[in-house]
Write a structure and sequence with these properties.
By secondary structure, the protein is an alpha/beta fold. The protein has two domains: about 110 residues, no CATH class; about 325 residues, Alkaline Phosphatase, subunit A, CATH 3.40.720. About 30% of the residues lie in helices and about 15% in strands. The longest helix is centred in the middle third of the chain and has 25 residues. About 50% of the residues are buried.
Length: about 450
């Protein structure tokens, strides 16, 4: 049978209840030139960039985070042990001994947040009735990546939130992760159903948009609606593409089933104090993270977007990690120092467990036809707004660099210990790893032109 050729933007189309529906596809052999080794060539590697951010630091004791040895055989510290349990340690490099170098910005959590996410100084604003207020002076690192990687995808970037208990009175710096510039932010989706609707519920452009309300009710019938197009495509592609298509459709079904389960867990405050989840501050964090990870993986595999950011918990945020026995907001607990170190430590371990969920889902999602997975072709920054939340320290910052970036980042991962290096060097390293040709990155005290050579292949 002659080899069929498909566009990388090929979509499955159909109709459900009169509403037009479309569905993206993963990368198939039929979408690349017939060159035999197409996926082995660097030019054909689709690289992705992601950020996972958690607020208020890793806790008082650096030894709970920092591995004791450097190099590729780094021994996991207690807070990083979840990476081993999840089977993703080899994909992660730990970077320690790096400091946020901002000179003009000096306000507690604000400088750490804007420094690690943009490498540039923040803009101080009139606080009004708040203690302090600021905004980013430059785009956050995800949007720097999206400026290049987002040109070829339907969605320039995806913004996701997990815990919605973020600080809302001290400017955009603490309320949002993704920024395009001063007071110009990209708000995250906190509900898996909302992200699902954004990605997979779009009407065909030619259809009557008055059916928007109808498509919500018919969301779970999307695959049924494109069944005819699926059958037609299966008849045209090769055996390996048919298998990959079948796996992709199975993943969509699993996401829909998972969303059904998640939707039964209220994301609102639980008023009944007798609930097993505890007080009204409880949130279904783990369930939300699992669902969002599946949606992100599908969006990346379908090349619907190549950039994402996850605001797991906010700086100065009031997330209550009831999963580890916390009964107060994380920011308040962090200021108790050693008095609540055990709870903060457990919350950090829980946070890394959730980060590992994302990495595990990406690792388990095939990418291309050369045996690689999404984690092989991604570069993901995991970090916070400070090291020790009680001291607001921005030295010896907690930084993880996950993924291989299509072969540009070192594998297996290493522990690299710097000597008061600038954290912006890590960001420039990752951006170059995913293909951005940047001579420098950051601004003010965060401006750098050097990379961390040990992280690059």
């Amino acid at each position: 049978m002659p080899r069929v050729r498909l566009s990388r933007r090929h979509l499955l189309k159909g109709s459900v209840g009169g509403a037009g529906v479309v569905l993206g596809l993963p990368l198939l052999e039929a979408m690349v030139p017939s060159r035999g080794t197409a996926f082995a060539q660097p030019a054909d590697v689709i690289r992705r960039f992601g950020v996972f951010f958690f607020g208020n630091g890793r806790g008082v004791e650096a030894a709970r985070w920092n591995p004791t040895n450097t190099g590729a055989d780094w021994a996991p510290s207690p807070q990083l042990e979840p990476l081993v349990t999840a089977g993703v340690k080899e994909y992660v490099s730990v970077v320690t001994g790096f400091d946020v170098g901002l000179r003009e910005s000096s306000r507690a959590h604000h400088n750490g947040t804007v420094g690690i996410l943009s490498g540039a100084e923040y803009i101080e604003q009139d606080p009004g009735n708040a203690n302090y207020r600021s905004t980013f002076s430059a785009p956050s690192v995800d949007q720097v990546a999206a400026e290049v990687l987002g040109q070829a995808t339907p969605y320039r970037s995806l913004e996701i939130g997990i815990s919605s208990r973020v600080a809302r009175s001290e400017g955009t710096t603490l309320q949002y992760l993704s920024h395009n510039g001063p007071d110009n932010f990209n708000p995250p989706e906190y509900e898996p159903s909302a992200l699902y609707e954004r990605l997979f519920g779009a009407l065909d452009p030619g259809e009557d948009t008055s059916l928007n309300d109808v498509r919500l009710a018919l969301r779970k019938s999307v695959l049924d609606g494109v069944a005819q197009d699926i059958q037609s495509l299966e008849a045209r592609v090769g055996t390996r593409d048919r298998a990959r298509l079948e796996q992709h459709l199975t993943n969509i079904r699993e996401i829909e089933a998972r969303l059904d389960t998640v939707s039964t867990v209220s994301c609102d405050a639980v008023e009944d104090p007798g609930d097993i989840r505890g007080s009204g501050s409880d949130e279904p964090i783990a369930e939300r993270m699992q669902a969002m990870s599946g949606l992100i993986a599908t969006a990346l595999a379908c090349d619907m977007s190549r950039v994402f950011s996850i605001l797991f918990s906010g700086s100065v945020g009031g997330t209550v990690f009831w999963q580890v026995g916390a009964t107060r907001g994380h920011h308040d607990l962090s200021h108790d120092g050693a008095a609540t170190q055990d709870v903060i430590d457990a919350a950090t371990i829980f946070t890394i467990e959730q980060f590992a969920v994302l990495l595990q889902v990406l690792k388990n999602t095939p990418d291309g036809v050369d045996g690689t997975n999404l984690l092989d072709n991604s570069a993901i920054l995991c970090t916070s707004d400070c090291a020790d939340g009680a001291a607001h320290s921005i030295t010896d910052f907690p930084i993880l660099v996950a993924g291989r970036a299509g072969g540009s980042l070192v594998y297996p991962g290493i522990h690299h210990r710097g000597s008061r290096n600038n954290t912006s060097e890590v960001l420039l390293t990752m951006l170059r790893g995913v293909g951005l040709d940047l001579a420098e990155f950051g601004g003010g005290g965060g401006l750098v032109s050097t990379t961390v050579g040990e992280l690059l292949v």
